[in-house]
Amino acid sequence: MKTVASQVSNDELTPPVSSSFSASDWRNGASRPVLDQLVEEVAVALVYNGISHVVMMATPNHLEDFALGFSLTEGIIENPQQLYDLNTRSLDNGIEVAMTISNERFARLKTARRNMTGRTGCGLCGAESLEQAIRQPAPVTTHRAYSHKAIETAVAQLESQQPLQAITGAVHGAALCDPNGHIELLREDVGRHNALDKLYGAVRKQTDSTINDRFVLISSRASYELVLKTAMMGIGMLVAVSAPTSLAVRLAEQVNITLLGFARTGRHMVYTHPQRIDA
Prior knowledge:
Strand order of the largest sheet: 11-10-12-13-14-15
Distance between the termini: 52 Å
Strand content: 25-35%
């Protein structure tokens, strides 16, 4: 249907993060015309030293956070200081994020390079080999413990911290929570892995301090890739409001991450490393 108005502005780029569309709302046997707010989904190309590396479908906000977080969790760079420059520009068919990274990291990227087109909800599409798709990060070393109360506190705050989800009903959220369960920072995106990359990028832009005493809460299922990215962040607990996959559980066990699923008020399932959960 035809778009009629943009309602939510983007703080970084010209494209809006949501737009109003005309629709027919059918309820209890009757229809009425409405304007429905839909999240924007655009192709975002990440370019390193002039070479296009990956195209992801993403929500067009916090793209600097996304680019930094993706670069870190994918191992393209090891720290933010290796990212020298970042510029975004809107093109006819999407957005380009052009980055300049250190020569050493770019040489490594060229050696292990993959070309992939990432679809919403899939960050591994197009990897050239199983070795590239299934990585084994170093085990997380933090021994921080968390209470069941802290987990419930974070879950109770999640909905109120997702403004774009409240408007569109179509985005995931990734939240950084302190040891008591208070949400310190949250990012949203149509892709759950994009939301986590945006979160990590935002964190690393704001501080060089360690965050391994925090935990991550996601408003989605727990996939292999989310566990992988959590491990790359050095965080010891990942809490998901939906189910984990079997591969996610196996990886969490291997890399010393406490993985929780079905997190909601009064309930959560602990799948791996329960020693981090205090009574």
